[in-house]
């Protein structure tokens, strides 16, 4: 009998109950007890749901009020001193580390302003974890009992669970040294943290847990030798001293390059992601001892597609043939945290398309059916229905648009190159645009006010007509344009008032996309996203942004910048197809955007910005062929979208979010790029892009903060940049769009920025 296993379930609740409860608590509207109660209800529902679906191995401790890695930091007492001095209850310490602690001054105490710990992307997903931050003074000790409590809580409900915790090597390797301990290498703390893991595992065993899912996802990264070596130390200790069976769990990639590090470890078994890397089966199976279990992840925890049962069963059968039915478990590829909760909540999806989807709740039955199928159970009806749906999708016109395929097959290399090299383009652009030294601009969005949101809602609900809404948007554009002219910005934007979200706005107008009404997925803390779904071949039925940009240009003599989201970013922030390569999906998006870029140019827009903030996060986790291919096709897609214009049309691009590779950015061949910079106080970082051959704007202020840097601060920032970059290459702009700011701050921030640029312009004009 092959068992079924689910590695974790979304904790946000079917109707975002957790978000509502958490935010109400933060706002001081409800008590901690109220919040704890909601958490308990969500956990109970999740366990019961899984049990009712027939899942054999159900996870506990997959719940979190913020982030599962942060939970471990609290549990292991990895709490930097700056969060302990206010004597907060545990729950508030958790939130202080996750989101910072701000309190106004009172008569008896000064104001508190402690920033949050660093937040980092969880591998290549859109989930973010809070980075463990270690210092020489960190003292590991058990500081609570969350995993044990939640195990017992499930048990009381009659549900036997398998607790899940992030393992010691991954926990340390995902962390970093605190500011005061920069010489500390986190992995060197292994001997100190192991006893605390042992204590925790012993407590779980004492509570009755027979096995524990111990997540070691860093095994899919390129690991340094000392980290690889840490596995043996860690797991020999844990296995020997804890008295509980461990299932060492990996996901999101290929473990083979690190297989030697875990081969022969005294654990009960291993879990691998065979959705991402089915090819690893032979080698990982061969590395098992004769007793060890193989948990086979075949139901995708990262996407919304119905599992192709025939394909999944083949993989499980192959595993069975290698290790025997009693040592195989059928599982989700990863936790289901990254999928929306329940497809049943979607009332508006086209039924043809809806039949292709499977959200977390539906995936539970999938694991169960596959396990039954390979155990000889009778699931004929389920297999047949599944085959019908899979075949229908493969044959559907939505997934096969002959015109799109033909157009893509005709793309030539010339289509991905501008007509002339940068120098010639620049000369042509100087004529069209006639910009001063240190041209000033913004990144696109202006404050999304309450009024904007109210009117958009009214329009969506049909409470105002399209004409009324259009008039409202025009009025917003007028105000934004007028303001920019008043303070003397050089390249204007229309402010993006018509856009709900920089990806959704385009997805809604492109053919090949579907949208959910309730398909929320946790991004970080109480922030959830609802990614569009690429369901079929993508094309652009009609212009998407021309009307607004053209209108904006018609009311000013200054150049108006058109504003688009790039192909890589649209792909990365959507649920992609699993039946077409990422590269081809990106190229289809690029062609659709190319039409838009060309139409903007035709409409008299001669500066066009194509944002690619997600280009870095798309980089495959490991070095190798896949990564090498990505750094080719991702910039190439951008160039395919932007190379149809004349030399005199200036193409901008924009990036925010950390750690860009200058070589990667260079490959876009954009005339001007703007990058996030204001928070990088590292004096080395300023050099990073100094060889960038085209023009560049380093973001001069943090758009996430209401703080208004005074003019002289802007001047000294410009001063330090002018020392490193050729001054004729430089633009002056913020870090990113201003949509989350208030008007008052924005006005003062931009005024100071523009005035500082003017000072430098005059200085060099007279020099
Ligand atoms: C995350 S990048 C955002 C760019 C977009 N044009 C904006 O200004 O909001
Ligand atoms: Zn940005």
Automatic annotation (TrEMBL):
Cofactor(s), by name: Zn(2+)
Question: Where along the chain is the active site annotated?
Answer: 704 (proton donor)
Pfam families, alphabetized: Meth_synt_1 (PF08267), Meth_synt_2 (PF01717)
Show the GO MF annotations. 5-methyltetrahydropteroyltriglutamate-homocysteine S-methyltransferase activity; zinc ion binding
Q: Which residues cross the membrane?
A: none
* List of residues binding Zn(2+): 654, 656, 676, 736
Q: In which pathway does it act?
A: Amino-acid biosynthesis; L-methionine biosynthesis via de novo pathway; L-methionine from L-homocysteine (MetE route): step 1/1
Q: Which UniProt keywords apply?
A: Amino-acid biosynthesis, Metal-binding, Methionine biosynthesis, Methyltransferase, Transferase, Zinc
Q: What EC number(s) has UniProt assigned to this enzyme?
A: 2.1.1.14
Can you supply a Gene Ontology BP term from the record? methylation
Q: Does this UniProt record's set of keywords contain Methyltransferase? A: yes
The family this protein is said to belong to:
Belongs to the vitamin-B12 independent methionine synthase family.
Is the keyword Transferase assigned to this protein?
yes
Q: What is the lineage of its organism?
A: Eukaryota, Fungi, Dikarya, Ascomycota, Saccharomycotina
Q: Where does 5-methyltetrahydropteroyltri-L-glutamate bind?
A: 19, 126, 573
Where does this protein come from, organism-wise? Sugiyamaella lignohabitans
What the record notes about the co-factor is:
Binds 2 Zn(2+) ions per subunit.
Q: Which NCBIfam families match?
A: met_syn_B12ind, PRK05222.1
Protein name according to UniProt: 5-methyltetrahydropteroyltriglutamate--homocysteine S-methyltransferase
Name the positions where L-homocysteine binds.
Answer: 443-445, 611
Annotated Cobalamin-independent methionine synthase MetE C-terminal/archaeal domain residues = 438-758
């Amino acid at each position: 009998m092959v068992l079924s296993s689910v590695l974790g379930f979304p904790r946000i609740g079917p109707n975002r109950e957790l978000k509502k409860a958490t935010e109400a608590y933060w706002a001081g509207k409800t008590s901690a007890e109220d919040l704890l109660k909601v958490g308990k209800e969500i956990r109970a529902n999740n366990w019961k749901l899984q049990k009712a679906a027939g899942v054999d191995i159900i996870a506990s401790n997959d719940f979190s009020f913020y982030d599962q890695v942060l939970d471990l930091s609290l549990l292991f007492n990895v709490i930097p001193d700056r969060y302990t001095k206010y004597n907060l209850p545990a729950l508030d310490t958790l939130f202080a580390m996750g989101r910072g602690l701000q309190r106004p001054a009172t008569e008896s105490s000064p104001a508190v302003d402690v920033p949050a710990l660093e937040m980092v992307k969880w591998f290549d997903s859109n989930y973010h974890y809070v980075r463990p931050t270690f210092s020489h003074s960190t003292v590991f000790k058990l500081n609570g009992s969350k995993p044990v409590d939640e195990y017992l809580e499930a048990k009381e409900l009659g549900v036997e669970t398998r607790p899940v915790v992030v393992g010691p090597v991954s926990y340390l390797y995902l962390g970093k040294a605190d500011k005061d301990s920069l010489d500390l290498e986190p992995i060197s703390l292994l001997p100190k943290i192991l006893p605390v893991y042992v204590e925790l595992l012993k407590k779980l065993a004492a509570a009755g847990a027979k096995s524990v899912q111990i997540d070691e996802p860093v095994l899919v990264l390129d690991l340094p030798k000392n980290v690889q070596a840490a596995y043996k130390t860690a797991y020999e200790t844990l296995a020997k001293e804890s008295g509980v069976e461990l299932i060492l769990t990996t996901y999101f990639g290929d473990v083979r390059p690190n297989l030697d590090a875990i081969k022969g470890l005294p654990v009960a078994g291993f879990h691998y992601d065979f959705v991402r890397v089915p090819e690893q089966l032979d080698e990982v199976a061969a590395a098992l001892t004769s007793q060890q279990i193989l948990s086979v992840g075949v139901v995708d925890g990262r996407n919304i597609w119905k599992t192709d049962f025939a394909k999944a069963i083949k993989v499980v059968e192959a595993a069975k043939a290698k290790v025997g039915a009693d040592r195989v478990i059928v599982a989700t590829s990863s936790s289901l945290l990254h999928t929306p909760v329940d497809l049943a909540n979607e009332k508006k999806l086209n039924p043809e398309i809806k039949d292709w989807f499977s959200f977390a709740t539906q995936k539970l039955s999938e694991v169960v059916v596959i396990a039954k199928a390979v155990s000889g159970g009778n699931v004929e009806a389920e297999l047949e229905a599944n085959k019908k749906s899979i075949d229908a999708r493969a044959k559907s016109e939505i997934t096969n648009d002959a015109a799109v395929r033909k157009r893509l097959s005709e793309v030539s290399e010339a289509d991905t190159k501008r007509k002339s090299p940068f120098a010639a383009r620049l000369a042509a652009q100087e004529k069209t645009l006639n910009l001063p030294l240190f041209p000033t601009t913004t990144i696109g969005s202006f404050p999304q006010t309450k009024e904007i949101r109210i009117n958009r809602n009214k329009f969506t609900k049909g409470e105002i007509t399209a004409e009324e809404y259009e008039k409202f948007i025009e009025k917003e554009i007028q105000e934004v344009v007028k303001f920019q002219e008043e303070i003397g910005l050089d390249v204007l934007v229309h402010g993006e008032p018509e856009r709900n979200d920089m990806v959704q706005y385009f997805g809604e107008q492109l053919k090949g996309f579907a949208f959910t009404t309730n398909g929320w997925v946790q991004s970080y803390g109480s922030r959830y996203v609802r990614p569009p779904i690429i369901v079929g071949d993508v094309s652009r039925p009609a212009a998407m942004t021309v009307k607004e940009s053209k209108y904006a240009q018609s009311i000013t003599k200054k150049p108006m910048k058109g504003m688009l989201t790039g192909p890589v970013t649209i792909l990365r922030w959507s649920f992609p197809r699993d039946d077409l390569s990422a590269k081809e999906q990106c190229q289809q998006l690029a062609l659709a955007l190319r039409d838009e870029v060309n139409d903007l140019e035709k409409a008299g827009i001669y500066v066009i910005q194509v944002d690619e903030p997600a280009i870095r996060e798309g980089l495959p986790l490991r070095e190798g062929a896949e990564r090498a291919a990505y750094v080719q096709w991702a910039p190439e897609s951008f160039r395919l979208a932007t190379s149809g214009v004349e030399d005199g049309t200036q193409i901008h691009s924009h990036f925010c979010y950390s750690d860009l590779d200058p070589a990667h950015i260079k490959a876009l061949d954009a005339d001007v790029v703007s990058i996030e910079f204001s928070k990088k106080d590292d004096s080395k970082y300023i050099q990073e892009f100094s060889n960038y051959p085209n023009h560049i704007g380093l973001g001069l202020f943090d758009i996430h903060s209401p703080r208004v840097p005074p003019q002289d601060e802007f001047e000294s920032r410009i001063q330090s940049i002018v020392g490193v970059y050729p001054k004729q290459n430089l633009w002056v702009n913020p870090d990113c769009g201003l949509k989350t700011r208030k008007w008052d701050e924005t006005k003062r921030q931009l005024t100071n920025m523009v005035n500082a640029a003017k000072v430098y312009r005059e200085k060099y004009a007279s020099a």
